[in-house]
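Our preliminary data section would be incomplete without showing what the modeling component actually yields. Below, a chain of 100 amino acids is followed by its predicted structure, encoded as tokens that our downstream tools consume directly.
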Amino acid sequence: MGYNIYQGQIIGPFSAGQNLSKLMKDNSIDTSTEAFKLWHLGIQSEVGAKFNLANKTIIIGKTGIYEIGNLDINFNNFSFYPSQALPASTIIDYVITVPE
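Predicted structure:
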């Protein structure tokens, strides 16, 4: 079985606690399937910005960029949100996979 791979991007501003996983879903293909997975995540934001991804804290380091791949997180069962308000310069890139 193969996978369809989709790339997406959401751009700030974002408010503290805003449900970014819902925003990512709304900007992607039909997410009704349980097999819809978050595979790669890239964040460009202010140094020190904090995000919560699946109950783990991500802190943006001195480069202002954070990337993580091979996540394999079910899109319907995870949370992703900023811990504080973030400006319009915040960019989040993501890759999702859906089985064929």
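The beta strands are 3-11, 37-44, 50-53, 56-59, 65-68, 73-74, 80-82, 91-99. The chain has a mean pLDDT of 87. Preliminary results of this kind motivate Aim 1 of the renewal.
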